[in-house]
């Protein structure tokens, strides 16, 4: 599994180095050229990280290369944090010109000392990164063209399933009803309708689909109900096998594609079915059309629900307007954090802890996965100082 923390830090470094503010300060302190070169080096390293992660199991030299990279990347992150702290201080001083901010905040002597120290640190960091970047050639690491964030999420994704207890879902009642209304609208032109739920990773698309899938009204309206977790390349044969297995509760053994498509169409033939295709990210329209043709044999009112992180997938797959899932509200986020951070039946919550918790959920921007993960950490930390540290 890819090191998500390492990817995240690399991404942060790239974003920081691309910041116009940092480049402006870098120009004033005479390190702009080094920053831009460091940015190019980090971009090059990022392009081969996924291949290195795959090779490290068999190749100990590659594993050592990755360990060296982790060390220097985290050091670079610390350096940029120091850099960003000075930028922030300059911003709060006010004034129109960055050079004026520098002069106001630092005495001439301190400014010179800081500039020299920062220039030396950045130059040393760039040289360390260059050495690591040059070493990649000996391992023949492949460049990966897919967006990093897409590859990281899908490679590490566990297989999903169709069940979620109602009490585990917070703040999705309106979303649930909106999807159910779409599913139970049988006054449509096509026999099979395709509905996409779109949202960023961690927003709760799968949870919403589970919530809807298990609703009593939905369960009684469809003769056949199936759940398939895609989470990988859109391999039509594999997906057809999974749909058949979900419909029959038996895995088809070593069948050729022609036999598989016959078996699938037999299962769907003239049945009002509900199929959830969870976590589709592949934007290959040709593959989707090949799969869609095999799903058209259901009775009128059949529905296919697709969860995806990309608008392009929604445009390719949906026959009606996609449903764009939003983050939880502030109150909903706090309810979820409380559920994760405190033991069941917890009587009262310290008002100071609540104030800190509200600040935490605001930073999570309504993303349930982020709130849940932080809540699990806070479960073992019940003092104000510990919460403030988080």
Question: What is the number of helical segments per DSSP (H or I, 4+ residues)?
Answer: 18
What's the β-strand tally? 5
Strand content: 5-15%
Strand order of the largest sheet: 2-3-4-1-5
Number of domains: 3
| Overall residue-averaged pLDDT value | 79
Q: Mind telling me which CATH architecture of the largest domain this is?
A: 3-Layer(aba) Sandwich
* CATH-defined superfamily of the largest domain: P-loop containing nucleotide triphosphate hydrolases
Q: Cα distance, first to last residue?
A: 26 Å
From the spread of the alpha carbons, the general shape counts as: globular
CATH topology of the largest domain: Rossmann fold
Strand/helix succession: HHHHHHHHEHHEHHEHEHEHHHH
Q: What portion of residues is helical?
A: 55-70%
In terms of structural class, how would the helical and strand content be classed?
Answer: alpha/beta
């Amino acid at each position: 599994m890819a090191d998500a923390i390492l990817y995240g830090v690399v991404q942060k470094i790239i974003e920081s180095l691309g910041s116009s503010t940092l480049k402006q300060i870098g120009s004033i302190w005479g390190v702009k050229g080094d920053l831009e070169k460091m940015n190019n080096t980090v971009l090059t390293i990022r392009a081969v990280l996924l291949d290195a992660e795959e090779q490290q199991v068999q190749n100990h030299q590659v594993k050592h290369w990755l360990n060296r990279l982790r060390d220097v990347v985290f050091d670079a992150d610390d350096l940029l944090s120091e850099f960003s702290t000075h930028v922030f201080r300059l911003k709060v001083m006010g004034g129109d010109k960055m050079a004026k901010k520098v002069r106001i905040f630092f005495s001439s002597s301190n400014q010179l000392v800081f500039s020299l120290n920062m220039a030396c640190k950045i130059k040393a960091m760039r040289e360390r990164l260059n050495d690591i970047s040059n070493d990649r050639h000996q391992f023949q690491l492949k460049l990966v063209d897919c967006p990093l964030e897409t590859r990281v999420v899908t490679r590490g994704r566990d297989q999903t399933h169709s069940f979620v207890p109602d009490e585990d879902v917070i703040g999705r009642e309106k979303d649930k009803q909106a999807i159910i209304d779409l599913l139970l609208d049988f006054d449509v032109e096509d026999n099979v309708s395709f509905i996409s739920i779109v949202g960023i990773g961690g927003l709760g698309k799968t949870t919403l689909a589970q919530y809807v899938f298990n609703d009593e009204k939905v369960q009684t309206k469809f003769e056949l109900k199936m759940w398939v977790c895609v989470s990988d390349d859109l391999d039509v044969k594999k997906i057809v096998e999974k749909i058949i297995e979900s419909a029959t509760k038996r895995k088809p053994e070593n069948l050729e594609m022609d036999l598989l498509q016959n078996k699938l169409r037999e299962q769907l033939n003239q049945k009002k079915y509900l199929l959830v295709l969870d976590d589709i990210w592949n934007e290959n329209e040709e593959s989707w059309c090949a799969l869609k043709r095999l799903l058209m044999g259901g009775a009128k009112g059949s529905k296919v629900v697709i969860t995806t992180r990309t608008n392009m997938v929604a445009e390719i797959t949906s026959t009606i307007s996609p449903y764009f899932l939003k983050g939880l509200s502030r109150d909903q986020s706090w309810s979820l954090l409380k559920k994760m951070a405190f033991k069941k039946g917890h009587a009262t919550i310290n008002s100071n802890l609540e104030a800190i918790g509200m600040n935490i959920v605001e930073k999570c921007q309504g993303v349930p996965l982020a709130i849940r993960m932080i809540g699990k950490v806070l479960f073992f930390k019940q003092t104000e100082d510990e919460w403030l540290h988080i």
